[in-house]
Amino acid sequence: MPVLRVEGLYKVFGRRPDEVVDQLSAGASAADVQASGATAAVIDAAFEVEQGEIFVVMGLSGSGKSTLIRMLNGLVRPTAGHVFVGDEDIAALDPKGLRAVRQQRISMVFQHFALLPHRSVLENTAYALEVRGVDRRTRLAAAREALEMVGLEAWADHRPDELSGGMQQRVGLARALAAETDILLMDEAFSALDPLIRREMQDQLMELQARLGRTIVFITHDLNEAMRLGDRVAVMRDGRIVRLDTPEAILADPGDEYLERFLADVDRSRVFTAGDVMSAPVAGADGRPVATAVTVAPNTPLADLLEPSALSEAPLLVADDTGEALGVVTRGDVLAALGGVSSGDLATRGDTTDDPQSLESPRA
Amino acid sequence: MPETTLITAAEGSVLPRVPVGDWVDTGFDWLKDNFDPLFEAVSDVTESAVEGLTEALLLPPPLLFAVLLALLGLAARSVAFAVGSLVGLLLVQSMDLWEEAMETLALLLVATVVAVLIAIPVGIAAAKNDRVSAAVRPVLDFMQTMPAFVYLVPAVTFFGIGLVPGIITTIIFALPPGVRLTELGIRQVDAETVEAGYAFGSSPAQILRGIELPLARPTIMAGVNQVIMLGLSMAVIAGLIGAGGLGSVVVTSISRLDVGLGFEAGLAVVILAIYLDRLTGAFGRTDQKSPLWRLRRRKTTTAPSNATVGHPAVADQPTEQLVTTSPRA
């Protein structure tokens, strides 16, 4: 059973929203109803998020993604439709029930951190538990633990304004983790950070996620971030979810011109892994072809295959933890994936690996 | 009611004469006739409050009390401020105006407390509700711009000559900035921070107490500071209706055309005003560097300060090692 299920969700701002929903469900576009003075922020959104998944909603500003994420915890009331957390419909809850769900099921990380400047880092981290009425000793202990998870335990007694932006957002993350909710909403959580710190935060989030297995809904306008973090990505445009698939599937086949234009900027070397680009093991090999000297794990990003590929004449062997051969990666496979050559589509989309960070040596 | 309250043609004008004054008179008479016991009760309570406070302020020896006030200044601000206020307060004593100054201070404190108790809740209501805000604003404009002397007349009708009408007019005159700045302060609190409060399941009351009021504190304190300043100027004017204190000294000096006495009383008001302004100003700041603040700060942060890891940039780095994907060579 999915942790989070969204059905026919609409949000319309302006006059007579219900009538506008009827028009929209009959096929009118956001631009059509705009003429009548209503703003359709989210149109007929539907998706399910499974336990332990990072579900990314990607869209440009004004695409409705912020409104969508705020409907998931009831900060914005849906005009129509349902949001099920477990079997509770957020859209139908009264304020008291809504507060209970927010305290126990869903927490949130904000774009500009939204920390309380008059409280210490530790007290900020304990905020969710304080609201829930947990006694002081217990909540501060839990907060300290959450700060340890993000590596900020030494800063517990400082004020937020004494910390850098990246550290403040880690406090924001710790605050959400300390709440121990199974669902974590992240609203452009890393967008206010500079690129290097953003990458670190993404790494840390993935590392924490591997350990904690929370269910994360992550909003971003950064396609690279979406592709890097998402188990699945929902692409929003003009209030509608126009595509919902795995990052690899979206990259391999954008489906429409709009997406294709955006995908031109994606760092493919970070999205595709050895497992995505490998071809079948060399025929006749009994598990470990003689010609292959270098072995890589299937989840190794393409970026980390560049150097071994360049140095090795033979294809790289892809093997799982037990050493069983899954396939091989040739230089041709690497180049084809970087160039976006796939599914018979021979049009080159330009080399997108000019990002200097993608040329780092593999992490041994 | 007699014809005087009806609209009649004004002499030499095409417009009818609207007898606003008559209506107000009638209204006040009616209030006076029907609510006299209430006014008397209010009068008794405020009078005993101010008189009790005046006695309390005059209880310690003036020299000692001046030193205590200076020490309060030291705790809230700085050594320079403490020395300055001590010199100023001693000057008031040497001008033989200490008792009057304490009477004015007592009147001002009571008026300020009442004004703040009214202003902050009204300001909160106005910040939360646009209709309340729209309804309150013209009332505040009226209270603030109606000439101060005009308040004195109805106050005297209700409460007679003396301390009480002085306090009432002071409250009315000093209230508006308290309301306005409370509303402004709460409306200015970062929307995302308030949203974060809701996202973690806080109730509106928890948000007000834990987020909005603390973040609006500097602005609200600026409002309280303005309440005190306006209150002080009105407390002196209230000397005209027998409110006592420095105001009555000013009134005496005017009636005797005694420039020297008037200047001394004025100077005492200025010293009191500057002292109160700087003191309350210090409570509103969040980046306090006062001796008291530093002391408190040292107490709460002694434990980790030695173990602190260093610069933010240094602490940002270890995460790099936590990357999950690691190809085996």
What does it look like?
Chain A has 16 helices and 13 strands. Chain A is 36% helix and 20% strand. Chain A has two domains: 217 residues, P-loop containing nucleotide triphosphate hydrolases (Rossmann fold, 3-Layer(aba) Sandwich); 90 residues, CBS domain Like, CATH 3.90.1280.20. By secondary structure, chain B is mainly α. Chain B has a two-stranded antiparallel sheet. The longest helix of chain B is centred in the first third of the chain and has 39 residues. Chain B is flat. The interface between A and B is large, with 63 and 42 residues.
Summarize the SSE layout with pairings:
The complex is a heterodimer of chains A (364) and B (329).
Chain A lengths: L3 E10 L3 H9 L4 H5 L4 E11 L4 E5 L6 H8 L7 E6 L2 E2 L5 H10 L1 E4 L11 H5 L1 H6 L3 H14 L15 H14 L4 E5 L7 H18 L2 E6 L2 H7 L2 E6 L2 E6 L1 H6 L4 H7 L4 H4 L2 H4 L17 E2 L9 H6 L4 E4 L5 E5 L1 H9 L25
Parallel strand pairs in A: 3-8, 3-9, 6-7, 7-8, 11-12
Antiparallel strand pairs in A: 1-2, 1-4, 4-5, 9-10, 12-13
Chain B lengths: L7 E2 L6 E2 L2 H39 L3 H15 L2 H16 L3 H31 L1 H16 L2 H12 L3 H25 L3 H9 L4 H34 L8 H11 L2 H26 L6 H15 L6 H5 L13
Order of helices and strands of chain A: EHHEEHEEHEHHHHEHEHEEHHHHEHEEH
- What gyration radius of chain A follows from the Cα positions, in whole Å? 23 Å
| Number of beta strands of chain B | 2
Give the proportion of residues in helices of chain A: 25-40%
Low-confidence stretches of chain A: 343-364
